[in-house]
């Protein structure tokens, strides 16, 4: 595999497991030094770091609660202080909290935290990264296929956070474009992770909505992120890349 990202420094939020871990490992395999953040999975985060170091790149895990935008911003400054620069920011940290509109029994605290993690922390991260990220840098946020096509009930609040990051990213692309910094969103479909396992309670319904009729793997999303972070994607910005098995077909 070509080391297309050698010399680059990347941050992957929520990089201890699932999609985030796969993204971190792929960027490391492509030659980037990688910092990952985690909120609770210290052992898993350290395991990812050791795997990255085995690839011959620098790596570190930093505890940062994505529900606190101030911590999300501090993560940026800590990485720049430790690695000397920032070239790639991958906003991956996210949570899922269902709740039907008008349901008096809905867990509104969980819905509010979902907004903070999925949207507010992304905004905080991009704002903090903008002044320090290298010219020609890349900002990539992990959205969701539900951020463009809401086919199931009970997910209005979740879908809204993903629509919001897509809109914010388009605006950020305009603001940062003069410095050749690209800002894009990857929108996964159902991916086999701890958060949404392929043998889970609602898996059959999700699978039926896909043209390919099967779940994707975290590595499928990592490949898309690596492309957008690489030199061949320098003219792609302000857009969404759907890696969704045909959910939106």
From TrEMBL:
It comes from Roseiterribacter gracilis. InterPro entries: NAD(P)-bd_dom_sf, SDR_fam. This is Oxidoreductase. GO terms for molecular function: oxidoreductase activity. Pfam families: adh_short_C2. The keyword Oxidoreductase applies. Belongs to the short-chain dehydrogenases/reductases (SDR) family. Signal peptide: none annotated. It comes from the Bacteria. The keyword tRNA processing does not apply. Keywords: Oxidoreductase.
